[in-house]
Design goal:
The complex is a heterodimer of chains A (about 260) and B (about 280).
Chain A lengths: L13 H24 L11 H14 L1 H33 L1 H14 L8 H8 L3 H25 L3 H9 L4 H37 L6 H10 L3 H29 L9
Helix pairs in contact in A: 2-10, 3-4, 3-6, 3-8, 3-9, 4-6, 5-6, 6-8, 8-9, 8-10, 9-10
Chain B lengths: L1 H20 L8 E12 L2 E13 L4 E5 L6 H9 L6 E6 L2 E2 L7 E4 L11 H5 L1 H5 L4 H14 L15 H14 L4 E5 L7 H18 L2 E6 L2 H7 L2 E5 L6 E6 L14 H22 L1
Parallel strand pairs in B: 3-8, 3-9, 6-7, 7-8
Antiparallel strand pairs in B: 1-2, 1-4, 4-5, 9-10
Helix pairs in contact in B: 5-6, 6-7, 8-9
The chains are: A mainly alpha (about 260), B alpha/beta (about 280).
């Protein structure tokens, strides 16, 4: 029985699948509990789960953290939105017109290896310490990858599908709106889901310098005042927000692309 | 025995095909004049298709039979306007074609339905591009669903259909657009043998009803005979038309005709022609 669970690529019962995921969580929590409750690790470095929970409750009750979440979310969302608004059309054009690919692929391929955080000093010089600077970091962190991923998705549209569209009378603009766009839409939504996850990881970097609010700022402050419980709460919240947006994108995907599933639901 | 046959056929080939290329008193539906294709590669030039000429009459069902890699798809793609020839011209109703257009409908071997559209919206895709009114689109969709035997499947998405069903819809989609000619590039090549014979009958029914001119590529000898008014046999690369064989089996064609002596004779002739070519392409 248990032997079957360790056969490569073999399906296992759904119950087992979910239970093992749950168990892994419990193991991590268990290790954390042993290390912290026993006093094996100093509470200044690793607070107990109950302390973290109490801190989280306190932060939510006072409402301070909601403000931080709101401001952080708006930064991530705006920076990402601008990246998507430019990156999606550009990626589609690059994926379907060789001339656009030739013009933009080399420079984007080059810039994407430059760490977004390294641009922060330059961004501060150029646009100061305001919201625009924070959003720019998120933008730089996601735009280039997003554009290249959308390009790849568009490139994968079957050539025969485009050829048959010509024989059905599609002109160039119609080819984009009626064929290439709908054909690559699922891939684009999936790209957005993945890159939005990355946008969250750039948040702390964006809020390290010159921020007076936001989850990243809260984490940095907590570090300064030796409040590991607050740091952990901040990290967990960023993780949860990332997870929630991921789930949202997945449900948009499921709802919009029922034609990709045999059962049609 | 094979070599004997080879001699007689090659002798007669050139004169016969050139004879057909000379325009008759009425303009043919499709006229292919000295169409050739040369690919430029690093090691020089490769002739994919030698200068080829033939005509297709209005309402005629023509199949092109040839070994793989003989350039038969190249001819079709040039006629469809999806590829440019390096020489010659293609005339449709006496007009030179230039690029792809809705007057030449096409069905591919690969499944090319739009996966995000249901069966009905797939069939009416070209009509919508032409801004045909909704009412007319609905009527046409109903008509073609009936013709291909898929009534009740209009709301299904391509992923829910079998390979044969997908190709039926692809045929309906091409016909609904009312092209002057239907070009088919091994449309049943990916289907299993049983489905294929059924699809041949479905196609013949659609052809008889729509009176379309069809240019159909296949490497299946039975298929080329069963469907065609004329079969063109192509040589191995570089591709060239080797022989035209008119098929005079009576219409409408029935499945049972495949086991008649007449059919068998055609098959023997074509098989030996194509065998020579297949052997050449292996060596």
């Amino acid at each position: 029985m248990a032997n079957k669970w360790f056969t490569p690529k073999k399906e296992i019962p759904k119950k087992i699948y979910t239970s093992v995921g749950f168990i892994t969580f419990l193991v991590v929590l268990g290790l954390w509990s042993i290390l912290s409750y026993s006093g094996f690790v100093n509470a200044i470095f690793l607070p107990t789960p109950t302390t973290v929970l109490a801190t989280a409750v306190k932060l939510f009750v006072s409402g301070d953290i909601l403000l931080d979440i709101g401001i952080s979310f708006s930064r991530v969302f705006t920076g990402f939105l601008v990246a998507a608004l430019i990156g999606i059309p550009l990626g589609i054009l690059m994926g379907s017109l060789r001339i656009m690919e030739g013009a933009f692929e080399p420079i984007i391929g080059f810039i994407r290896y430059m760490p977004a955080s390294a641009f922060i000093p330059l961004l501060i010089l150029w646009i100061g310490l305001g919201e625009a600077e924070k959003m720019s970091v998120i933008f730089l962190g996601t735009f280039f990858q997003l554009t290249l991923m959308v390009m790849d998705v568009t490139k994968n549209v079957q050539n025969d599908l485009i050829d048959v569209s010509y024989t059905l009378g599609a002109k160039n603009i119609q080819l984009f709106t009626k064929v290439i766009l709908p054909a690559s839409l699922p891939g684009i939504v999936d790209t957005l889901r993945i890159t939005f996850g990355w946008a969250w990881t750039y948040l702390v970097v964006a809020e390290i310098v010159g921020a007076s609010s936001g989850l990243g700022h809260m984490i940095m402050q907590a570090s300064r005042f030796l409040q590991p419980d607050k740091i952990i709460v901040g990290i967990l919240i960023i993780g949860l927000l990332g997870l929630i947006t991921d789930i949202m994108f997945k449900s948009i995907y499921r709802a919009s692309f029922s034609w990709m599933r045999k059962d049609g639901f | 025995m094979v070599t004997q046959k080879q001699d007689t056929t090659t002798e007669s080939t050139d004169s016969k095909i050139q004879g057909d290329a000379i325009p008759k008193t009425t303009t043919p539906k499709l006229e292919i004049k000295d169409v050739g294709k040369i690919f430029k590669t690093k090691s020089g030039e490769t002739v994919a298709l030698e200068k080829t000429s033939f005509t297709v009459e209005d309402g005629e069902f023509v199949t092109i039979l040839g070994p793989s890699g003989c350039g038969k798809s190249t001819i079709l793609r040039i006629v469809a306007g999806l590829e440019e020839s390096t020489s010659g011209q293609v005339l449709l109703d006496g007009q030179e074609i230039n690029g792809p257009g809705p007057d030449r409908g096409m069905v591919f071997q690969s499944y090319t339905l739009y996966p995000w559209l249901n069966v009905k919206d797939n069939i009416t895709f070209g009509l919508k591009l032409k801004n045909v009114p909704q009412k007319e689109r609905d009527d046409l969709a109903r008509h073609y669903l009936q013709l291909i035997g898929l009534v009740g499947f209009e709301k299904h998405y391509p992923i829910q259909l079998s390979g044969g069903m997908k190709q039926r819809v692809a045929i309906a989609r091409a016909l609904a657009n009312d092209p002057k000619i239907l070009i088919m590039d091994e449309p049943f090549g990916a289907l299993d043998a049983q489905t294929r014979t059924i699809m041949q009958e479905v196609l013949l029914k659609a052809w008889e009803e729509s009176k379309k001119t069809i240019l159909f590529i296949t490497h299946d000898v039975d298929e080329s005979i069963f469907l065609a008014d004329s079969v063109y046999v192509m040589t191995a690369r570089p591709g060239r038309l080797k022989k035209k064989i008119p098929i005079t089996l009576e219409r409408p064609r029935e499945f049972s005709m495949k086991s008649t002596v007449e059919f068998g004779n055609y098959k023997e002739e074509l098989l030996s022609l194509i065998r020579e070519e297949s052997l050449k392409s292996i060596h």
